[in-house]
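Field reference: "sequence" (input) and "structure" (output). Example, Quinolinate synthase:
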Amino acid sequence: MTAVIDEKKQEVINKINYLRKKKNAVILAHYYQRGEIQDIADVVGDSLELARRAQETDADIIVFAGVKFMAETAKILNPDKKVLHPNPESGCPMADMATVEGVLKLKEEHPDAVVVSYINTNADVKTVSDVIVTSRNAVNVIRKLEAKKIIFVPDQFLGSYVARQIPEKEFILWKGFCPPHFNLTPDQLLALKEKYPDAKIAVHPECNTETVKIADFVGSTSQIIEFATTCEAKNVIIGTEVGLKHWLEKVNPDKNYIFPVNADYCGTVHCCDMKKNTLEKIADVLENETNEIILPEDIIQKAKRPLDVMLSIV
């Protein structure tokens, strides 16, 4: 049975490889994608890396295996290219928590503040932002801004983490959050620490504040990779989306990467939306060029400005 499944999967992969070459397409995948998608992608990265590579590519078609805001960002940075999203239902609950109306209301209440939006926002919210940041560069970018008051959208936990690093600035935090990261509790990590007392704990700043406080290392997905694969500890407890395990084991298979699991033996930090993309859906959009990201020209121009500010700083 396994051989049949593998044969079918290989047929899909062969189809993808044929179509991307024929159509001069590039496949970009986030670290939280299924392992089999990471394996066939031209580029695997976090939000910042993928944003940069989307801007640099000379492909005619970009297939973005991630959630919707990521595919939108690729389109904003590449307005003349065709950007395809394998599954339109793969959205981001945290990004959907932020609204243009709400951001404009905060701007009205705090006219001296700069709106800093996490890249995990939809295109319309980017249009009313002054600068975009990622979890990797947020501290660096915000520290360099002249503004002393920051409206941070939409992740309250990343925002509060950044605020603790830059106490000289005032932060007004949107009350959004990433449900999978929020659900990771300190108790889950401490239970693993009891089992692996020599382990280091690395978590993403989207985790709730109490979870972040007990970590040995806090950083973006790519920073967690750097820490987990190079630190002296043999065992590393990872507090972020379980899809990262696939990449970590490829980069440094000699270490033991421990992810909290729930009763269903699924990663506690498990993004169902990220997993909605499949090899079959990638093959389908490449073949039929469906699910294209279409954004009005004015949205593209307005959303690109804060992205350009970020890219000019980093």
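Residues 2-90+275-294 form a domain with the Rossmann fold fold (CATH 3.40.50.10800).
DSSP finds 16 helices and twelve strands in the chain.
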